[in-house]
Amino acid sequence: MDVIESSTPSLPSSAPASSSSSSSSDDENNSNNNNSNNDVIKSPFLRVSAPSRPTSGGGGNEEGTTTTTNTTSTTTTTTTSNTISNTRDPDALFSGGGISFFTGNRDGRFSYGYSSFKGKRSSMEDYYETRISEVDGQMVAFFGVFDGHGGSRAAEYLKNNLFKNLSEHPDFIKDTKSAIVEAFKQTDTDYLNDEKGQQRDAGSTASTAVLLGDRLFVANVGDSRVVACRSGSAVPLSIDHKPDRTDERERIEKAGGFILWAGTWRVGGVLAVSRAFGDKLLKPYVVADPEIQEEEIDGVEFLIIASDGLWNVVSNSDAVALVQDISDAEAASRKLVQEAYGRGSSDNITCVVVRFENLS
């Protein structure tokens, strides 16, 4: 995430191979912050992960958590490969994943994989969450990527609280969209209350996908992004919240704010996204109101949820093409992270891939 006060990121030790308004077009957002370099890549990523094993309850690392809850032995089975945190190398690529079967009338399963890499930044501000649980008797899967700025506090708070608040909302099952809006706003309010007394402002994006039965709800705040593959083609399910988006600029100016060009368009000359959690000094111009898109799962081959460390250098269509033939979701997520680094991404890079498979 790009904020004006950010220091120049440090170069990696040895590492891996591998402005117009925003819109839902496939490649439009990739010219912003496309950081190229000529680093010679001499060694593969150091990958840190644990062998696959059944889990119940959770695990993970400080950037993300995989939580799985088996509803019953006959309806939901999940295995997951969780990353190791007690042997953490700050320059390692962390990855893991799992498989779960659909419940109810749908005959199929989905697999998911995640990878997270500090890259060329001096610190890691990305977090992610993959969670499968039972809510009011229904199996629900939550996937999210949170890209922090001004520190990692906001992103970590979202990892720990956003899906918890959503699943506990009394109308989550019967009015999912309204529950998402209210849970996002409440989580932002709670975070800001917790931040009282903090001298440095911090915030985070949130790109999330919620699987409920045969419906998929994508909710986005900021410039992380969700892209689906349908019939081999890339279909964006979120639109980046950039200050120069016509509707975003109008909203900011109507609230009494302004945007300035400082290498890129920024709210108040500071923040390069127009929506985020936190950022108390930029309220009410920077808001955590999600844009939500509902999709039927039928026809969706896989999802890519990633921070802008990927999207700054890899287009939607390239991302889909790169992993279309990789059936293992964890391997696909690693491939995307490696590709982004190889193309010169200078940001943290975090990616979650979710693949859907019919068994009938």
Describe this entry's structure for a reader:
- By secondary structure, the chain is an alpha+beta fold.
- It has a single domain, classed as 4-Layer Sandwich (Phosphatase 2c, domain 1), CATH 3.60.40.10.
- The protein has helices at 153-167, 176-194, 246-254, 308-311, 316-323, 329-342; strands spanning 47-48, 53-54, 59-60, 64-68, 79-81, 93-101, 108-117, 126-135, 138-149, 203-204, 206-212, 215-221, 225-230, 233-236, 259-261, 265-267, 277-278, 291-296, 300-306, 349-358.
- The strands form three sheets. Strands 1, 2, 5, 6, 7, 13, 14, 19 and 20 form a nine-stranded mixed beta sheet that branches. Strands 3, 4, 8, 9, 10, 11, 12, 17 and 18 form a nine-stranded mixed beta sheet that branches. A two-stranded antiparallel ribbon has the order 15-16.
- The longest helix has 19 residues, at 176-194.
- It is globular and about 50 Å long.
- Residues 111-356 form the PPM-type phosphatase domain.
- Keywords: Hydrolase, Magnesium, Manganese, Metal-binding, Protein phosphatase.
**CATH H-level homologous superfamily name:** PPM-type phosphatase domain
The tally of strands reads: 20
Helix content: 10-25%
The largest β sheet comes out as: 9 strands, mixed
CATH architecture classification: 4-Layer Sandwich
Order of helices and strands: EEEEEEEEEHHEEEEEHEEEEEHHHE
Residue fraction in strands: 25-35%
Number of domains: 1
CATH topology: Phosphatase 2c, domain 1
What are the low-pLDDT stretches, counting only 5+ consecutive residues below 50? 5-87
